[in-house]
Amino acid sequence: MGMVGKRVGIFHDIRLKPGQWYGQSYNPGGVDPQSQQLLLELISGDLTEIGRKYLEAWKGLPFIKFRLISNKVPNFNDEVLITRFNVVEFTKSYLGNEKPELKKELLPAELPGIANCCLAAYRRLLRRGRFIQPASGLALLKRVKAVVNPWVAFMDAHWEPDPIGDGTPCAVFDAAFKHFCIKTERLDLAKTSASDIIQKINAIPKWQYVQSFRPRTGNRARRYPVKLKAGVKLSKEILALEGSPFETN
Q1: pTM
Q2: Does 21 have pLDDT greater than 60?
Q3: Which of 13, 50, 147, 151 falls between 20 and 30 A from 190, CA-CA?
Q4: How far apart are CA 22 and CA 26, in angstroms?
Q5: H or E segment at 67?
Q6: Do residues 235 and 179 lie in contact, with contact meaning Cβ atoms separated by under 8 Å?
Q7: Where are the chain's structural domains?
Q8: pLDDT digits over 234-246, tens only?
Q9: How do strand 8-11 and strand 65-68 relate by DSSP bridges?
Q10: Which pLDDT band, with edges at 50, 70 and 90, does 1 fall under?
Q11: Using CA atoms, how far apart are residues 102 and 145, in angstroms rounded to an integer?
């Protein structure tokens, strides 16, 4: 209810629940479906109903814009929701080099300059009529998408279709996915079985055809009809599984 009538809402340290396995079932964590729907309504400025304790629910058009600040890549758990945010990455950390005097001694002298920068940016926004995604945040945006849908991120970052070529050994493909999980800090998915990985990938329209096959000649170990994208390299440990001819790191 505190959001009603506000222009800006700031969540200064969000910590969303990570995905986790419970036996054979997987809970993706992140933002639950009910909160996703409310966020989409608030961001879009749609007619929204917000419950109030002991009072009739508030109904109206919200004006609030959200700022979410996090030390870790947030798991929105919704591919549509991440398209409603612009992301900005701050690459410099002051951990261990904090300046307690900054707020009281140094910041006041900088306030006029900060205000002028903000006003200049606000005028640019009014002329443009909308926010834009800064190029400096595109790498972070890719990591956000990888958290939301790691299957799409894995395939789009590593592979391209190879329907008439030799394909990629299944063992190499599966090991590459586990390596991807480590690099993107999705250890919760690293133990996903090979069959479940392919089921998830086949659910992506672009990759519905990915099924294992045996080559007619040579080593007849099962393969997938995909090949590494140009410039993508796998580690020697992964390639040693099937003696693949790809480049190594």
Answers
A1: 0.64
A2: yes
A3: 13
A4: 6
A5: strand 65-68
A6: yes
A7: 8-90+116-134, 149-239
A8: 776 666 665 444 4
A9: parallel
A10: low
A11: 35
